[in-house]
Design a protein that fits this description.
Blueprint: H1 4-15, H2 24-34, H3 41-52, H4 57-78, E1 88-89, E2 92-93, H5 95-98, H6 101-125, H7 130-144, H8 149-160, H9 179-189, H10 191-204, H11 209-236, H12 248-251, H13 257-280, H14 289-300
Antiparallel strand pairs: 1-2
Helix pairs in contact: 1-4, 2-6, 3-4, 3-10, 4-6, 4-10, 6-7, 7-10, 8-9, 10-11, 11-13, 13-14
Bound molecules: geranylgeranyl diphosphate.
Length: 303
């Protein structure tokens, strides 16, 4: 990723210049959220998929910026007191702590719209076929919508609640705390943006259906592996100093892979998913070298 990162940072910096109508404090808060030191996995995946399919980085850059903006919005909103109530993100105070809650809500709202503006303006300036752009807008909007990112977040919050009597005609579902349900949450909450990243890169590279299928399968496995590793990192992090192998999420009563299958079971699952992800992109040969290395990184990451 080392050579992709400066390209991504430069594009994000340019995308975070808003017109005179943007109140300076709002602009500052948006820049604070987006330009914070994130791993930039999703925009990198857009570019890597474009490369694997023989496309150009510049054609896919609007989508790369757009997906990072959607991701940044989701983090800002996830950190709000009404949701996960976190004080730290990317090593800094969260947006609602550094600014205030209304500002954090509006940062997320603005980023959702700006994401699509960025995607479209790159297509306009690079004279990209409108059909490609329409398909990309559709892919990103669906991934960020009710059946994917937002739906996954909704079910994740619901799974944290203690069992309660039937509400609004909906019975209290006993399947809420199973592995299948956990997987369904993560396929939407984390996996949807991973899949969209690869799909967007493929769209702007004009990829054939077989390539798109391979990338979609890779994304599905890698997204889940990422989440399993995320749970493992949390499991062994926060409270290690207290001698308890239980992290923040587990302490909040969240569903986690180590919680459901033990730390060794979770590690084995992550390894199997990463191996499967690597196999899906083997069809691209050398042009998928970054995607292969990325899969290894997901398994080895420490934060
Ligand atoms: C508020 C609609 C809405 C959705 C929030 C993304 C999300 C859904 C919640 C974040 C909570 C979380 C820890 C999810 C697990 C995996 C994940 C998405 C981690 C953050 O992604 P990274 O590690 O973050 O790529 P950076 O900061 O490196 O970009």
């Amino acid at each position: 990723m080392d050579d992709l990162r400066p390209l991504i940072e430069d594009a994000l910096e340019k995308a975070c210049q808003f017109g005179d109508g943007c109140p300076p404090r709002l602009g500052l808060a948006i820049r604070y959220a987006v330009l914070a030191p994130g791993k930039r996995l999703r925009p990198a995946m857009v570019l890597m998929a474009a490369e694997a399919c023989g496309g150009q980085f510049a054609d896919a850059m609007g989508a790369a910026v757009a997906i990072e903006m959607i991701h940044a919005y989701s983090l800002v909103h996830d950190d709000l007191p009404a949701m996960d109530d976190d004080d730290l993100r990317r090593g800094r105070p969260t947006v609602h702590v550094e600014f205030d809650e209304p500002t954090a809500i509006l940062v997320g709202d603005a980023l959702q719209a700006e994401a699509f503006a960025q995607l479209c303006s790159n297509s306009i300036s690079r004279n990209i076929a409108p059909a490609k752009t329409a398909e990309a807008v559709h892919v990103l909007a669906r991934a960020a919508g009710a059946a994917h990112l937002v739906g996954g977040q909704f079910d994740d919050l619901a799974a944290e609640q203690p069992p309660k009597p039937a509400e609004n005609g909906l019975p209290n579902d006993p399947t809420l705390r199973t592995l299948t349900h956990l997987e369904s949450i993560h396929r939407r909450k984390t996996g949807a943006l991973f899949s969209a990243s690869l799909e967007l890169g493929a769209i702007f590279a004009g990829a054939i259906p077989k390539s798109r299928l391979a990338l979609s399968n890779y994304a599905s496995d890698l997204g889940l592996a990422f989440q399993v590793v995320d749970d493992m990192l949390d499991w062994t992090s926060n409270n290690e100093t207290l001698g308890k192998r239980v992290g923040k999420d587990a302490a909040k009563g969240k569903l986690t892979y180590p919680g459901l299958m033990g730390i060794d079971g979770a590690r084995a699952k992550a390894q199997q998913l990463v191996q499967s992800a690597r196999e899906h992109v083997a069809v691209f040969g050398e042009s998928a070298w970054r995607l292969t290395r990325l899969a290894d990184f997901v398994l080895q990451r420490t934060h």
